[in-house]
Design goal:
Layout lengths: L6 H12 L8 H15 L2 H5 L4 E5 L5 E7 L6 E8 L18 H10 L6 H9 L2 E3 L3 H19 L6 E7 L7 H17 L2 E7 L13 E4 L1 E2 L1 E3 L1 E6 L14 H12 L8 E2 L2 E2 L4 E7 L11 E10 L4 H30 L13 E4 H12 L1 H13 L5 H15 L6 E6 L7 E2 L4 H18 L3 E4 L21 H4 L13 H7 L3 E3 L4 E2 L7 E3 H21 L1
């Protein structure tokens, strides 16, 4: 009996998934995997093949789910990829208690429609949109994948489908990283051949009010570079006796934020410019001593650029900031110091990469001593990846503080490789199938775009599009080898072509997040099913 096929059935299923407030790192992120297991284990297929439905633990107690539907002795398998976690709901304000109840929230917004922006109000009044956290990103995609899995249980596809539902996509992608060895193990145990991965991330608008419908043949890359600004402390009553790290990081912000030099264009696609995701000083107690260190981290997106090219742009930005910081110091000192007065402090700024700083510390103290200090920090670690990366850099900077002020470039997780199957003949055929089917059956025009710009877990299983040495990244990543290892071997063993055919929604990660129901739950399931049929034939 099929229960996940009609628009009404899929809307009910979506609401049941959204009602689990599976914010990343919450207990509900575990509970929704249990719920998926519960609703699948009761199906006849999994009663006959219980070993095809599995929960896989992460090191921190969370779990991911794999659900295989095998068609006889077929080996060719399409992986359906989805994440179950969502971002927080603080932005919902007075509607926060309804954020995970889509029908009730949508009904309440009808009563208070003046609260909505113009575009959201227009969608609300159409009567075909459902509001709520996770409706778009990406529990609708997961809902459609469950519908496809149900079709596979009835033998509708020539090959196998393997659903992979993971936690933590919104923060560190730890769920997908844990899924890599699980996929590798299932492949070997069941004798599978992974033909392609089909993701269900929603369409992302290219600009506000964008009316176009998209499917994607790749996923954009992301690096998270950080700058540690290590200044020279001084008393607030003697401001020209040192260099405030907060001043240094403020000039870096001016050089990095929205900098057009980082916009990459491939065909008609462009990456958004960098934007700061974190900026603060590292002084945790109040005093009239200026902060010695500050840190900033930036979201930098790329498509075909190499890490080496990104490094060069980042270091150029640091050089420009350096010149402006020193000029600012001397310019302001000229107003304060009079006559023959001078400052004993004459600022210069050393710009280093993390690797250069590490080598500097080793030259002074020896590798054993530097490793001893870092191992001690690893042992005592009680911080997340980004804060701990900063701690490791700051520790080395303090060993070499005689060369301060300094600006140190480093990288922190998460890192998403840019991946693309845009020129893969099979994926081209699959994309053409989706486009032709959507047009002929529904009069909908789908536009094929190479890079999904919202970031996705496809980055860990798709073919990389930038010819970049991973060493260029990892040698500038303090946490690599200190509690974090890049899973290069697992990634290489299951790399497969990728495509993203997802639902229609708007405003991801905003309180007006919403899903359009007719395209997403009437048309998309049939478009995706036809695409799968053709992918198996290719």
């Amino acid at each position: 009996m099929k229960v996940w096929q009609t628009k009404e059935q899929l809307t009910d299923l979506l609401c049941s998934l959204v009602e689990y407030p599976s914010i990343t790192n919450s207990d509900e992120e575990i509970a929704i995997i249990e719920y998926l297991y519960y609703i699948l284990e009761d199906r006849d297929y999994y009663k006959k093949h219980p070993d095809h439905l599995q929960r896989h633990p992460l090191d921190d107690g969370r779990q991911l789910l794999t659900a295989l539907v095998k068609n006889g002795e077929a080996a060719e398998t399409i992986v359906l990829l989805a994440h179950v976690d969502v971002v927080g709901v603080e932005d919902y304000g007075s509607y926060q208690n309804l954020a995970f109840y889509p029908r009730e929230l949508t009904q309440e917004l009808h009563k208070n429609s003046s609260d909505l922006p113009k575009e959201a109000l227009k969608d609300l009044e159409s009567g075909d949109w459902l509001f709520g956290r996770g409706t778009m990103d990406m529990k609708a995609g997961l809902t459609v994948h469950l519908s496809l899995l149900e079709k596979a249980m009835s033998g509708e596809f020539e090959g196998n489908l393997l659903l992979v539902a993971v936690p933590d996509e919104e923060v560190n992608s730890e769920g997908m990283l844990a899924a890599l060895p699980a996929l590798r193990e299932i492949k070997e145990q069941k004798g599978l051949v992974y033909k392609t991965a089909l993701n269900g991330e929603p369409m992302f608008s290219k600009y506000p009010g964008d009316p176009a419908y998209y499917l994607y043949t790749g996923s954009i890359g992301k690096a998270l570079p950080g700058f540690l600004c290590y200044g020279k402390e001084t008393h607030a009553g003697e401001p020209f006796g040192g260099l405030n790290a907060n001043l240094m990081v403020s000039y870096l912000a001016q050089e990095m934020e929205l900098n057009e030099a980082f916009i990459e264009k491939v065909g008609e696609e462009r990456t958004p410019p960098p934007i700061s995701l974190m900026q603060r000083d590292l002084k945790f107690e109040y005093s009239v001593q200026t902060p010695q260190a500050a840190v900033a981290m930036y979201n930098v997106l790329y498509m075909k650029q190499t890490i080496k090219e990104l490094n060069e742009k980042l270091l150029l930005a640091a050089q420009r900031a350096k010149a402006k910081i020193i000029n600012h110091y001397h310019h302001q000192a000229s107003y304060y110091l009079e006559g023959t007065q001078t400052s004993a402090f004459h600022p210069d700024i050393t710009i280093l990469t993390y690797d250069q700083l590490y080598k500097e510390a080793v030259e002074r103290y020896g590798e054993m001593e530097v490793e001893r200090r870092q191992n001690r920090l690893v042992k005592l670690r009680d911080q997340g990846d980004r804060d701990f990366s900063t701690t490791l850099v700051q520790s080395l900077a303090s060993l070499c503080k005689d060369i301060s002020p300094m600006i140190v470039l480093f990288y922190s997780p998460p890192f998403y490789p840019a991946v693309s199957s845009h020129h893969d003949p099979m994926i081209q055929h699959g994309a053409e199938t989706a486009v032709d089917y959507a047009r002929s059956q529904y009069g909908e025009d789908l536009e094929v775009v190479e890079y999904f710009t919202g970031l996705s877990d496809l980055s860990f299983i798709g073919p990389t599009s930038a010819r970049s040495s991973l060493t260029d990244l990892t040698k500038q990543m303090p946490i690599h080898g200190n509690g974090f290892e890049w899973p290069a071997e697992d990634m290489e063993s299951i790399t497969m072509p990728i495509i993203n055919v997802g639902p229609l929604g708007r405003d991801p990660h905003q309180w007006t997040e919403r899903l359009e129901l007719t395209y997403s739950f009437e048309k998309l399931p049939k478009i995706a099913a036809e695409t799968i049929h053709q992918l198996f034939k290719a």
